[in-house]
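queue> holo job accepted (coenzyme A)
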Amino acid sequence: MNTAPLQGIKVVDFTEVQSGPSCTQMLAWLGAEVIKIERPGVGDATRDELQFNPELPSYYFLQLNSDKKSLSLDAKTPDGKEVLTKLIKECDIFVENLHPGAMDKLGFSWEEVHALNPRCIYGTIKGFPVSSQYKNLKAYEPIAQVTAAAATTTGWFEGAYNMPTQSGAALGDSNTGMHLLIGLLAALQQRNKTGEGVYVYQSMHNACLNLCRIKTRDQLTLDKIGYLTQYPQYPDEKFGKTVPRSGNIEGGGVLGWTYKCLPSGPMDTEEEANNYVYVILQRGEKDFEKACQAFGFEDWLTNPNFNTADARDRHKKEIYERIGAWCANKTKFEVTEILSKAGVPVGPVISTQELLADKSLYDGNTLVNINQGGEVGEFTTVGVPFTFSNFQPTYGPCPTLGGNNEEILTALGYSKEQQEAMAKNGTTQPLADGQM
Ligand SMILES: CC(C)(COP(=O)(O)OP(=O)(O)OC[C@H]1O[C@@H](n2cnc3c(N)ncnc32)[C@H](O)[C@@H]1OP(=O)(O)O)[C@@H](O)C(=O)NCCC(=O)NCCS
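queue> job finished
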């Protein structure tokens, strides 16, 4: 059997930029038919954002919209509303991520869509939960990160760069899309039992906060005892009242840090400054013994400053220094090889260039090459992040703006003449200059 899990599921995708499209991207790759609604002549903002060639769609758009169909449609015109209504009546999932209030203005709120099609599941992304004082704010990635305590706990804790720092990972955008995906899949399962669609509201804030759970754990602990043993500040420096930035600590009870290594080659130079490795000392006695043997630091086994996990927390600076000196004359790959053989948790710090060059990751899912055809040709993206024992996703090209208009409108029963009229009156094509 090789059946796409969402085969037969029809999605009306009223999303743009990253958060919503990352969710519908996954729905499409899992086999759903995804119809992306885009403003005529404009399209998703990412189509022409950060392009590598002003004539071609950007990688931003390409990486988020493969295997979808595009319908250019102005949902503000009477004909546009009619088309959208017909699509909603036959879809399983409607997803949107416009600014707060926009769908109400368009006349396609949850209540209205539910009345049109009670089986339809309605997924929505906004910046903040409805209870939040910020619920009406427009939101982009950094706004989600800074308001969910992700930024205050990320970055360096001393020196000139001691400031709230954004993660390079899209905690506010793609992460929100994946959270909504979970909600939508649960809602589908629920609908199988009840026959009734449901409203799934996902805020970027909640998605981000869900990944900051351990930072709230740290705040609760700090409130109780006034210090945090796993942080670099412990035991020498005074803690404030809030969880500090943690640099590169592991975050749990084990002792982890990044160590500088020798540059390893043309993709890992001193100039790029990614010649680092991450090494973890586990808390267990046996694990620590193995690590000491691998480093040649057997003296730590009998030294009371190091031979218990609690003692190591108190003397972490000396540990960082000694392991740092040990790593300094090896490359990150040499360190990884030596320590992994000894069972020590270790990983080389990998740059985007190194990542995309790693042939072992082109396994059909992790990194995938999609043939877009035309001048774009092949491009690389990140595939479905999990694997199925009975289903292999395939990865197709992205649609041109309105590239599926005829197919979709014909299937809805619109004649050629009606489609031409909609193109002329601004419903599916931009109005000619001077027309209102
Ligand atoms: C991303 C965001 C900040 C952009 O805000 P924006 O610049 O106002 O753009 P929007 O697309 O939301 O809305 C612009 C207008 O286009 C309209 N529009 C969008 N698609 C349309 C279509 N197919 N037909 C007709 N009108 C359309 C909207 O109705 C809106 O009209 P209005 O201003 O009269 O209400 C905002 O959409 C937002 O906060 N979204 C929720 C959080 C989110 O997902 N953020 C993006 C993270 S990647």
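queue> Residues 16-20, 37, 39, 73-76, 97-99, 102, 105-106, 125-127, 138-140, 173, 204 surround coenzyme A (CB under 6 Å).
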